[in-house]
Amino acid sequence: MTPPDAFALFAFYHLGLDPETWQYRFRNLHAVARRWNVTSDDVTRWLAAHRLDADTCVRVDFNLAGAHGAAMGLELDGAPAEARRAFAEATWAQFTAARDRGLLAEAKSHVDWDDPLGKKPATGARD
User: Fold this and answer.
1) Contact 71/80 with Cβ under 8 angstroms?
2) 3 state SS of 15
3) pLDDT value at position 127?
4) Where are the domains of the chain?
């Protein structure tokens, strides 16, 4: 089996979007391995080779969790496949630009754990 290119791997694993149908599903390492008929060790090597592994991604100043949530939202909203593909391409460009600017010295969380969905209205004061 030919390994996927970096964009296809990013879209499938990190965004949950199948690069053939653009359908969203939650994907994990084993889902990627099944999709390309390889072992999870192969997928781990691919992720590292494309600098898409967890150790790299947590040090990129980019909200990957938010992007994943947005991809899920497109599915829930019934967005057409073309819109999901365009989202994946734009997200890939933003992620790679952030990664190419350099990795952070330490992992960064882009999630406000007091408001993980970003729904709390801004008040200007701490609760």
Assistant:
1) no
2) helix
3) 46
4) 6-100
